[in-house]
Each structure stands twice: as structure tokens, then as C-alpha cells.
Amino acid sequence: MAKLLLPLATLFALGGCQSVNSEPAKPAILTSVNPSVIATLQQAIQQAKGGALVTLSDSVFTKRSELLIDHAMSKGSDGRVIMGAHNIKSEKFILQLRNNQCELYYPKKELTTVLEGVTCKEL
């Protein structure tokens, strides 16, 4: 019986330590935007959702913590948008701050990516 209690006690102790060290993520905005930050965000978005690199503005995540990415609409030979060409929903990404580190959260896959070299502040 004592042999069984020691591993259980160890598991509870380790689990308790991990939950104390991790603070909840808070919505954040960027404190500075430069080409390096844009490239880091583009790569994180591409790795999360796949596909080509997205084009981001210089004001991305400077006023809001959320980014919605719409898919391009298909156009006909006349250059006009084809109505009902797709029903793909917008992709949502959230900039977050946790333990003084910027993170990009992708709710669709519940994926969080730490953004190295990116600084942000709580919204």
C-alpha cells in the first residue's frame, strides 16, 4: 500500500506546481510593430492554419486583440465576384499575454504559439 501512495503523492505534487506557475492568458495588443514582428505573426498564422502567408497591415493587433482573416472570393472571367463561391468562415486569431510573454491563440484548433521577439501589453 505504501508503494502505491508514493507515486500518487508525487503526481499530485507535480500537478499542483504546474497549475500555480501558469497564469491565465489575457487579451493583449502589440507595443511596437516592425517588419520582424509582422514576419513572426505571418509565420505563426501560416503554421496554425496552413496555406500561404497572409498579408497583414502595419496596424495589426495595435487597437484590438482579435484578428479576423477572410478568405478571398472567387471571381469570374468578367472580374466580378461569384456569389456563393464558398462558405468558408473567417479565421480568428487572438493576441494574448501570459507570464510576460506574447502568444497567438487560434481558437479553431485550440493552438497557442509563443511569439519570440514580440512585445505586447495587456488590453
What does this structure look like?
Residues 1-22 form the signal peptide. It comes from Pseudoalteromonas distincta. This is Lipoprotein. The protein is elongated and about 50 Å long. The protein is built from 2 helices and 6 strands. It has one domain (24-72, 84-122). It is an alpha+beta fold.
Whole-Å distance between the termini?
51 Å
String of helices and strands = HEHEEEEE
SS elements, strand count = 6
Major sheet? 6 strands, antiparallel
Oligomer: single chain
Tally of separate helices? 2
| Tally of individual domains | 1
User: What are the low-pLDDT stretches, counting only 5+ consecutive residues below 50?
Assistant: 4-20
Give the proportion of residues in helices.
Answer: 25-40%
Bulk shape: elongated
Gyration radius from CA atoms, angstroms: 20 Å
Q: What structural class results from the helix and strand content?
A: alpha+beta
Strand content: 15-25%
What integer is the average pLDDT?
83
Q: Could you give a quick summary of the protein structure above?
A:
It contains two helices and six strands. By secondary structure, it is of the alpha+beta class.
